[in-house]
Design goal:
The chain is an alpha/beta fold. The chain is 42% helix and 14% strand. Helix 4 crosses helix 5. The protein is globular and about 50 Å long. The structure holds pyridoxal-5'-phosphate (PLP). Pyridoxal-5'-phosphate binds next to strand 8 and helix 9.
């Protein structure tokens, strides 16, 4: 424990306070927003202070990195909930279902099928989000907005998968609130309760638009090394 205002623990507490304040100003229960601490590219020395502070919900964007980091930490700290927030290849579905409690990046039938098969094989239920490419950016992961309801039907009716909600990453150069409002409306139309949206730069805006899961990395852990892969 430390009182250093720049320590990871005080940054974590600060993010939690800002989430609670944003929820309160939006007339929401602060407990309805889950902080997913995105620890990608950071090692144990950065993650352990967050675990010691009592936080248990973390996110990674790469299956292999999670495999290297988390099994040992899970043994030491009970109750960890691990979220995959990065793109998933179907040949990594086995590892992903084994390692993660939630997957935020279901964006096509092939991935949904691979995840459904692994959940059945492993007898494990993983919380699932459909990632929507709200900015319709060609290079970005996510299902096109107009294809979302069809993918949802495939998941539910053909694969028997429960989908908890929707996730998005707004384009860098656009007002994020527009995308959060859009995702929130789409989720409501589809009858989905969870919204994974908001990162370090915009999580308070996301909370105002109804985020139930905010994914915050650098605001807690500091800047990532330059060589770390993009989201
Ligand atoms: C890295 C990442 C985050 C966290 O980004 P920060 O800006 O560091 O908070 C959130 N979501 C996804 C999908 C990411 O890849």
């Amino acid at each position: 424990m430390t009182d250093d205002p720049h320590s990871i623990q005080s940054r974590l507490a600060d993010v939690a306070r800002r989430i609670a304040a944003a929820a309160q100003s939006a007339g929401r229960d602060p407990a309805s927003v889950l902080l997913v601490a995105i620890s990608k590219s950071f090692g144990e020395e950065a993650i352990i202070p967050v675990l010691e502070a009592g936080h248990r919900t973390f996110g990674e964007n790469r299956v292999q990195e999670a495999r290297a980091k988390w099994p040992a930490l899970r043994e030491r700290y009970p109750g960890i909930e691990l979220h995959l927030v990065g793109a998933l290849q179907s040949n990594k579905a086995r590892d992903a279902v084994e390692l993660f409690d939630a997957i935020h990046s279901i964006d096509r039938g092939k991935i949904a099928t691979a995840v459904a098969e692994e959940m059945a094989r492993q007898g494990k239920v993983v919380k699932l989000f459909i990632q929507v490419n709200t900015g319709e950016e060609p290079q970005k992961a996510g299902v096109a907005p107009r294809e979302t309801s069809r993918l949802l039907r495939t998941c539910r009716d053909e694969l028997g998968l429960a989908i908890a909600g929707l996730m998005c990453i707004p384009p860098h150069d656009e007002e994020p609130g527009v995308h959060f409002a859009f995702l929130s409306k789409l989720a409501a139309e589809l009858g989905l309760g969870c919204l994974s949206m908001g990162m370090s730069a915009d999580f308070e805006t996301a909370v105002a638009f109804g985020a139930t899961h905010v994914r915050v990395g650098s605001e807690i852990f500091g800047l990532r090394p330059l060589h770390s892969p993009p989201a």
